[in-house]
Amino acid sequence: MKSVLETVMNPSGLMAMVCLACVVLKAIQLYWRRQKLLKIFKSFPGPPTHWLYGHLQKDELDNRASWAEQYPRCHPMWLGSFLGFLCINHPEYAKAVFSRGGKDTVSLTTYISKRRPCITTISFTGSVLKGVDSARAAD
After folding, report:
1. Of 8, 22, 51, 137, which alpha carbon lies 20 to 30 A from 90's?
2. Nearest-angstrom CA–CA distance, 68 and 91
3. How many CB atoms lie within 10 A of CB 97?
4. Residue 11 domain boundaries
């Protein structure tokens, strides 16, 4: 029977240990992210969530309109366990969020001024059109 050291030192054992370390690191990151979002959303009332699915159950997504009536200002929305959004239903709340000016929010004027304009390229030039006009004149 091989010892643990011999198993870890061969290439496949070493790769397995690296993969396991990556999976554990990602699980810790997801756990911290969920705890951070739970702390942020703690002060906002909202519908109950499933610990794994969040609000992704088929009946709950159909209830968004009733949630907007039940929670008229805003409520958290969970897509799975680790992705949470704050659904804002009131214009004053939206104004407060967008006027905050943090690095996560982008105002509409900033978006419009920084976006690249769409340039339409014309596939023919004036000389091509002159050739078409002269060909029509010859007919």
Report:
1. 51
2. 13
3. 14
4. 1-41
